[in-house]
Design brief:
Beta-lactamase; 416 residues; two-stranded antiparallel ribbon; single chain; globular; 11 helices; alpha+beta
Length: 416
């Protein structure tokens, strides 16, 4: 352990990182030891520094691991634009939709325990979901839009929730009457409990019949409530027992405690003074433990989670999921349904690459991961034995371009 801490400290000096605690994996002596280019990673650091200087991002924590070792850790910029303290390796980020893989793993543990099957109708556990109708938008002769409601072609299944083929959506991702209904109903209001959220959701229409297409939405929030009903615990407690505590993810949760608030990374104004997209307060006491996007975490904690997955479901003797279950989760479950970009499918909680070339981003067939609404990103590449983590808090207009650049530049660092 002393050697790991020393190696991490040496690497931290080289990258400007602060290494208060050892990482879940040992450090490589150099990136080249695990087949990565130091020169290319320095380019990525320089580009990130320029983004910080330009005001696109206040600060960043970036990590790449390969072949079971951390090859590169870079910490740059400020934790909070309104405070003088710098970003640190243990800064706490809103990870938004990077919550979804953790929640999906917890539900699949219950499948392993025989408490449900992915083919089960959701209504078996959440009866009100079974009452939802499918909406078809019609335009009358007077040009007015209205909704025609009908029964779904088949029941919504647990698999539909996990792969986003449920008919549930995000209200802000479209302009249909169904999208408007989500917004008017306050879906996603942090003042709701998960039980209240599902009750409010279940009186709204489905955007399409379950299984017909892929559309990103609140499906994993419903998975969170499903976990509560089956496990008999609040979602945060269930995640802590099933995933966070076994892996030693001590800084991951739905709220940041008072003694850790000084570590919370914050967004800032964009160039020209335009405010970044409003973000939820990490200490607002919200009772809505969003399974789709409510967790906060650190690069070290998320490395523990991804390292367990990269190792077939276990880390340091603690298994969170079976090897075959994980293979099942990281297979493509969309199988050509409309809604997914070419070359990219979706498994049970993860985006999955199905072909090289089509997606316009480099990568290997079989890699899987996901991103968060404030710009965070992770992926695991089994073929290259690589884990990449990008932790920032940025605005909606910038987040996709920044993380796509990070992905492309990390891929270019692979030399062996």
């Amino acid at each position: 352990m002393k050697k790991i801490i020393l190696a991490l400290a040496i690497a931290a000096v080289a990258t400007g990182a602060r290494a208060e605690t050892p990482l879940a994996l040992p450090m490589a002596a150099t990136p080249e030891e695990v087949g990565l280019s130091s020169t290319q990673l320095k380019r990525l650091e320089a580009v990130t520094k320029q983004h910080i200087d330009d005001g696109l991002v206040p600060g960043a924590v970036m990590l790449v691991a390969r072949r079971g070792k951390v090859a590169w850790l870079s910490v740059q910029g400020k934790r909070d634009p309104a405070a003088p303290d710098p970003m640190k390796a243990d800064s706490i980020f809103r990870i938004y939709s990077m919550t979804k893989p953790i929640v999906s793993i917890a539900l699949m543990q219950m499948v392993e325990e025989g408490k449900l099957q992915v083919s089960d109708p959701v209504a078996k556990f959440l009866p009100d979901i079974g009452k939802m109708k499918v909406a078809t938008e019609k335009v009358g002769t007077d040009g007015a839009h209205s909704l025609l409601l009908s029964d779904p072609e088949r029941p919504m299944t647990v698999q539909d929730l996990l792969r986003h083929t449920s008919g549930l959506i995000y209200g802000t991702r479209g302009a249909s009457l169904v999208n408007r209904a989500y917004i008017d109903a306050g879906i996603g209001n942090r003042g709701l409990s998960n039980e209240e959220f599902v009750a409010r959701l279940s009186v709204l229409p489905l955007r399409f019949s379950p299984g017909a297409r892929w559309e990103y939405g609140v499906s994993t929030d419903v998975v969170g409530r499903l976990i509560e009903v089956i496990d008999g615990k609040k979602l945060g407690e269930a995640l802590a027992t099933r995933v966070l505590q076994p892996l030693g993810m001590a800084n991951t949760g739905f709220q940041v405690p008072a003694d850790k608030l000084a570590r919370a990374a914050q967004p800032g104004p964009r160039p020209g003074g335009q405010p970044m997209t409003p973000r939820f307060r990490v200490d607002d006491g919200a009772k809505y433990e969003s399974g789709g996007g409510g967790l906060t975490s650190t690069v070290e904690d998320y490395l523990r989670f991804t390292a367990a997955l990269a190792n077939g479901g276990a880390l340091q003797g603690k298994r969170i999921i079976g090897k075959k279950t994980l293979e099942f989760m990281t297979a493509d479950h969309t199988l050509g349904r409309p809604g997914r970009p070419l070359g990219l499918g979706f498994g049970l909680g993860f985006e999955v690459r199905t072909r090289e070339g089509d997606s316009a981003l480099p990568g290997s067939v079989g890699e899987y991961g996901w991103a968060g609404n404030a710009g965070t990103l992770f992926w695991i590449d089994p073929k290259e034995q690589l884990i990449a983590l990008y932790m920032v808090q940025v605005s909606d207009p910038d987040r996709i371009a920044l993380r796509n650049q990070f992905r492309t530049m990390v891929q270019a660092a692979i030399i062996d």
